Here is the input.
Amino acid sequence: MKKIVIAPDSFKESLTALEVAEAVKQGFLAVYPDAEYRLIPMADGGEGTVEALVAVTGGNIVHTRVTGPLGNPVEAHYGVLGDGKTAVIEMASASGLHHVAQEARDPCMATSRGTGELIRHALDAGLRHIIVGLGGSATNDAGVGMLASLGAKFRDAQGNEIADGGAALSNLKSIDISGLHPAMADCTFEVACDVDNPLLGDRGATAIFGPQKGATTAQAARLEQALTHLADVIVASGFADQREKNGAGAAGGMGFGMMTFMDATFRPGIDIVIEATRLKDAVKGADLVITGEGRIDSQTIFGKTPIGVARTAKIYDIPVIGLAGSISEDVAVVCDHGIDAVFSIMPRVMTLQEAFAEAEQNLTFTARNIATLLAMKGAK
Here is the structure.
């Protein structure tokens, strides 16, 4: 083999995408020491997107303190890509569930202010193309907290700004966006989003995602009413009604807020990453493409990294191998979407913690076995 492209996602809680790629490379080097290796860390818009895009574009990560979901300061970060013009923000970094202990989760009170503070930081730094990955949020405030951090005013009947959190949206009377950060007018906002849920209803932000954020049945009803009221006030204020749009319900309605007030465009996260990493150019002329993530199953075909990589490779009819920490009984479906073979890296039955700890060596060992088999079959 002359050229091998290794383009995996991270193995969550274990290895970054770059660490996965390096481990696979080490296994193949033992059999194909003279091959050209292209390592392209990937992500699909969720956790790991910032690190993957920063690594492949030669950018840097900016760390700052922002307002956490429950109002307390938290450490967060965003990426500046190598072009010096583009910021990549994972909403979860500032407003994610991981900032809130299980017993303290309360989407009625949680705010997205911290995400807005990250965006403001990027705007103040002169960045005018901002990619926001939605997912993993603790909030259900439709991005109102984020917008407040950027200068919008959401007021009650007495003219006071409403409190933080999803429940407080019920008190909304008027909206004033005249004070929005002036740089927003010259900024392009792109949203990495892989869900098509509307804002309201049985498939809406609250019904589908509220329970994982700690919403009880009573709280869910309260939040649904609050989001409905918000949408009604927005329409009465002369803004477009976006509540039924695909993706409006993403990240506790953050999608709705970004559609309405930031003219954001929505794209599958993997498509954004493929474009930013120039994966199509990288795989051209390759003899083999290797991808993977922590788990490969039937859900992988719905916008996950391995399928995005495989479809790109198939433009040039390049064989694709997928590696995973675990695979499901229904994993064979991925073979209908561009992945030619799938391998679990697990050498034996082990605990989850053992799997995390041994992931690097198991990846390298599995990769070497695959390379050896290919060599035996005559892949030069």
